[in-house]
Records
---
Amino acid sequence: DAGVTQSPTHLIKTRGQHVTLRCSPISGHKSVSWYQQVLGQGPQFIFQYYEKEERGRGNFPDRFSARQFPNYSSELNVNALLLGDSALYLCASSGGYNEKLFFGSGTQLSVL
Amino acid sequence: EDQVTQSPEALRLQEGESSSLNCSYTVSGLRGLFWYRQDPGKGPEFLFTLYSAGEEKEKERLKATLTKKESFLHITAPKPEDSATYLCAVQAVDTSYGKLTFGQGTILTVHP
C-alpha cells in the first residue's frame, strides 16, 4: 500500500507569492494533519482535518489555510509568502481520531 | 503551554556503545508520548507510543520508558544504520488528536 504522498517535493517561490501544497493520505485514512518543520527544529502543528472538518489549528497567521476534499486528500495554502515561511511542510494521516500519525516525506519550500 | 525539551542536541557513539536520549515534557494532561525517527530529507517514522508512567516498549535495539516528567530512549549496541534524528512528541488530553507538540530532536551519529 502507498504511504502518505505529498506534492510537489520541492518548490521555490518569491516573497509575496501564494503557494498550494497537496497531500494524499493512506487509503482508508480520514484524518490529515499539517506540520511545518524549520531546519534544526521539530515539526510544529498547523492544522488537523477529520471528515472534511477543521478539528484543530496551531499558532499560525491567517495567511495559512487548508481544506480537505471528499476523497480525504488535502491542500495547504499559504498567501503573501515571507522569507520565514521557508521550511519542510509535512502532512500526516491517521486512520481514526485517536490513532498514531503516519507522515509523508514533505514538501521543501524555499522563499527567496 | 505544552513544552518538550530533548537532550542532548547531538550524540556521537561508536558502534556497540549503548546510550540514552532524554525527553523532558510539560503538559496539562498527557494523552500519549510519541517517539519518531527522522532520516535526512524524509518525514518522521513512528517508533513508539507510551501512555502512562512506568510503561516500557521495545523494538529491536530501542527501548522507550516513561515517567511523569520525562521519557528515555535507550539504544543498546547501536549500529551505523541507527544514525538519524530522534524526535519526541506529546499529545495533550485537551487538544485535537492530530496535534503533537514536538521537541527539537536529538541527532544521533553512530560510527563504525
Note: DSSP finds no helices and eleven strands in chain A.
---
Amino acid sequence: AQSVAQPEDQVNVAEGNPLTVKCTYSVSGNPYLFWYVQYPNRGLQFLLKYITGDNLVKGSYGFEAEFNKSQTSFHLKKPSALVSDSALYFCAVRDRVDRGSTLGRLYFGRGTQLTVWP
Amino acid sequence: GAVVSQHPSRVICKSGTSVKIECRSLDFQATTMFWYRQFPKKSLMLMATSNEGSKATYEQGVEKDKFLINHASLTLSTLTVTSAHPEDSSFYICSASEHLLSSYNSPLHFGNGTRLTVT
C-alpha cells in the first residue's frame, strides 16, 4: 500500500534558524513526491516536487527538499526560517502506476505544524 | 498558474438542509477532481474522485447518497451535502487535475476550501 509518514506533529524553531520537516514514504516502485503548505482556513499551496533527476529539489519561498531513496525520505528544509513560514505542512506521494480506481491519487501525510517564533 | 476556485468559503446551515459546494478550474480543463474533508488539526481525508462525465468513485466509509458529487463539465464539480447534520461540520477542500495521462508529475491544484457549520 502507498503511504506517507510525517513523524512530527509539531516543529518549533526560532526565526533565522534552519528548519527541517520530516517525511518518509512507502510505495511500490519510484514515486512522485510533493510538499504542500496550508495556512489557516485555506486550501493547500504547492511548494515543490520530486519527479526525477537531482535529489535536491528547490521550491517556493526558499524551501528545498532532499530525496533519499535508500532511506525512503523526502525531508523539507529551509536554511533560515521566517515567522511567516508558520503553517501546516503536508508531504504527499503519488503513484506512477495505474492502479485503477486510485489513478492519480495523492496520498497525504498527517501534516506537521511548523511554528517559527521571533 | 493554474487556479481552482471553490465557493462558498464559509456556509452555515440548519440541520436537515442541503448545501452545495462548487469547485471550478478557471484556466485549465480538469479531467479529474478530488474532494477532501479535513478535521481540525488533521490530515486530509479523501472522500471521492470524480471524473468528468462519469460517476464519482467514493472512498470506503463515505456515504455516496449523503455526499452527492457531480462533475458535469471539464471546469466544474459540485459536492452536495444532503440532509446535513452537525457531525458533517468540517472543512471541505477540492482539488483538480488536468488531463491525467500528461499530468502525473504535475501538482494537484487546490481550492481554498469551504468551512461548513451545521447548527
Note: The interface with chain A takes residues 4, 6, 9, 32, 34, 41-44, 46, 49, 57, 91, 93, 95, 97, 100, 103-105, 107-113, 115 of chain B (CB under 8 Å).
